[in-house]
Amino acid sequence: MNFNKFKLLAGDASFRKFYRSTNGSVIVFSKKNKYSNLLIYEAINKCLNKNGINAPKLKKNFYNKNYIEIEDLGDNSILKLLKKKAYKNKIYFNIIKILKILQKIQTNKIITLKKKNYKIPKYTKFKLLEESNLFLEWYLPFIIKKSKIKKAKKEIKNTFDDIYKNLKLNQKVFVHRDFHISNMMYYKKKIYLIDSQDAVYGNIAYDLASLIDDVRLKTSKELKNRIFNMFVKLNYSIDKNKLRNDFEILSVLRNLKIIGIFTRLAIRDRKKNYMKMIPYAWKMIEHRMSENFLFKDLEMKLNKYFSKKVRSKKWK
Predict the structure, then answer these.
(1) Which helix (DSSP H) or strand (DSSP E) does residue 190 occupy?
(2) d(Cα 83, Cα 5) in Å, to the nearest integer?
(3) pLDDT tens, 113-138?
(4) pLDDT band at 3, cuts 50/70/90?
(5) What is residue 290's three-state secondary structure?
(6) What is the largest CA-CA distance in the chain?
(7) Degrees (nearest 5) of the Cα angle 26, 28, 33?
(8) CA torsion 120→125→127→128, rounded to 10°?
(9) Using CB atoms within 10 A of its CB, is residue 220 exposed (0-12), middle (13-18) or buried (19+)?
(10) pLDDT category, 22, cuts 50, 70, 90?
(11) Do residues 67 and 1 lie in contact, with contact meaning Cβ atoms separated by under 8 Å?
């Protein structure tokens, strides 16, 4: 198919491309990693819809030709709504209610477009640690001198290992894994989740950390605490201290991972626009570390290798 006749829509950090068709659908094209970007993408969307979460529905399947057609959700993202600074509490409360429904999903296997079972993986500590190391593999060598890279990697990696050992909540729930406002659309007066192909079963605090400490929208400490307390009220049976502990650990290490991913996108994929969000990611990391003695060693190591000037650098 010739996609040039269709409007190219703003994409995400994946290898997918989105085109608005003339028949009321969106074409999702991916020749690279199409198993994840198309097959699993559609499977998780189907799982969400079956469990009461709005997600784009499949309209036509052309997987063998590297694309599928899905429901067109328009251009109204939750990010746009929140930037208008109206009804923030109401919007976030509705998102927290969606998160509660999401975390109740117990589907283990999904039948894909290829008529095979896809098993939703577990978000193990090994996998979490592996992802945090993206900061060491991409951002660290990009910033510090070559002669210091090996030593810095070893020192910081050891602190990652120690911090992950302090996660306290063992309950495994459905985790979207990219539960931030850019992955939420407002369509027909409802919130829809998108970009869901990386879903796993993991820590109940992970998606909450993704939402509250989101690099895409600067929010006050007061609003962050308000959203956290909204979640606690809807999940009153959870130990609040353990939740706070895991939330802070996952927020810090997730945002370090994000800095690594944004650097990789800039270097490998030439998507340099993500780099402008790195200074705010650093600010949130610093804020969370300052509130918890658990991060004392990590804070010392990061201060040793990454100065305030480096962290606040405005990337073009």
Answers:
(1) strand 190-193
(2) 32
(3) 999 999 999 999 889 999 999 999 99
(4) low
(5) helix
(6) 57
(7) 170
(8) 110
(9) exposed
(10) confident
(11) yes
